[in-house]
Structures are given as C-alpha cells and as structure tokens.
Amino acid sequence: MSGRLEGKVAVVTGAGSGFGEGIAKRYAAEGAKVVVADLNEGSAARVAREIGSAAIAVTADVTKTAGVTAMVTDATDVFGRLDILVNNAGYTHRNCDLLDVSEDDFNKIMAVNAKAIYLATLQVVPIMEKQGGGVIINTASTAGLRPRPGLTWYNASKGFAITATKSMAVELAPKKIRVNALCPVAGETAMLDRFMGEDTPERRAAFKATIPLGRLSTPEDIANAALYLASDEAEFITGVALEIDGGRCI
C-alpha cells in the first residue's frame, strides 16, 4: 500500500527537532522524499540519518537569501522536484513585559517567523507553478489567534504568518498552489521554557489547565495535521489556519 505522500518531495525547515522533526519523519513514513533543513547541522544530520535514504540534511539559515536558495537548490538537484514546503522554523523571546524585549530579539523573531516565509516563497513558487501546483504550510501558533500578555512580539509575528497565509492562498490559487497554516498550542519542544518564562511543574499545570483536553501538544499532533494539509485529501483546503490546540482557542 502506497503512502499518502508517495512521489512527493518536501522541504521542512526547523526540522532538526520538535514539530519540524515530527513532520519530516511522518512525511517520510508516508512516502515523501524529505529535505531536513535546520540551522543546527548536527540536528539536521541526526534526523536525516534516522529517516534513512528518503531524506537529506541541509544546514540553512532561512533568514538569508543565500541559505534559502541553497536549501531549495539541494531539494531539486537531489530529488528532481519540490511539491511541499513547510515553513516551520521559529523563534521566540522569553515570556516577559513587552518593554523588556531587546531590539536584537525582536529582529530575530521577525526574521525567522516572518521574513523567512517571504524568502522561501520567492524561491519555491516559480518551481511549483512550473510543475503545475504545490503546497505551502506555515507554522503559525494559537498565539496569532488568541494572544496573551508576555509574548506580545512573538504573538505579532505569528499574526503575520496567519495573514500572509490567507493572502498567499488567494493570490496563488490560480497557480494551483495551496497555502495553509498550522496553529499549535505550546508543546514539548525546546521553546517551551521561553513560552512559560520558566519550565516548572507548577507552570506546566497552570498552562495545561487552560487547555480543555488537558495536555500540551506533541510533535505527532502537529505532524498529523501537516500530513493531512499536504495530502491530496486536502485538495480543496486553502487559506486555513488550523487550530491544533486541544480547545485552547475556544
């Protein structure tokens, strides 16, 4: 039985850990060839090695044109096409007063969470259009839908991702390119301590109490949603900001 992404080639950024790793591994399990892109060379290599021959590792700074160009070129040179782009790389400041976020942190947040989507879009849209279509998935956040104090500038960057997704979806629809966003609630990733300010059992319990289904998200939760949106089963779905949040945004 063939996988749901058989014959597809996917680039997943920030795929060296967390949600990106989960997505890359699920895509490969469903038949896709995967470019595991990450700023951390060792992490990207580990994930690609664990996936096997269906994956290659690429060290890429997605905030720089040269990094994005190299990442996309590697995908097409090695696998011959590019069907799915997952803009998953993300960055956040620590949970704090909005006046206490440094300009350097603000710039990095906007570069990774916003500019990277722009740069990757410039590279992949011409390729997808020539192939007759494709899928772009942007990892946004519940923070872009239901912002709360303490993460204001991060929240704003995820609001950008959601609005960009919807506008891209309309503009790229005639090219048969679907664009959707994932909106996870906080999960078991390296950024969790930054989201909460401090990762303690008490803070985790308090945060879980705000999620009706009573737990944090997992990479598997996000990967399942990303698989559906990338598959042909979602061929009529575009411009959606899908909440994967256990009811948090209700």
From TrEMBL:
<dbReference type="InterPro" id="IPR002347">
    <property type="entry name" value="SDR_fam"/>
</dbReference>
<dbReference type="Pfam" id="PF13561">
    <property type="entry name" value="adh_short_C2"/>
</dbReference>
<protein>
    <submittedName>
        <fullName>SDR family oxidoreductase</fullName>
    </submittedName>
</protein>
<keyword id="KW-0560">Oxidoreductase</keyword>
<dbReference type="InterPro" id="IPR036291">
    <property type="entry name" value="NAD(P)-bd_dom_sf"/>
</dbReference>
<dbReference type="GO" id="GO:0016491">
    <property type="term" value="F:oxidoreductase activity"/>
</dbReference>
<comment type="similarity">
    <text>Belongs to the short-chain dehydrogenases/reductases (SDR) family.</text>
</comment>
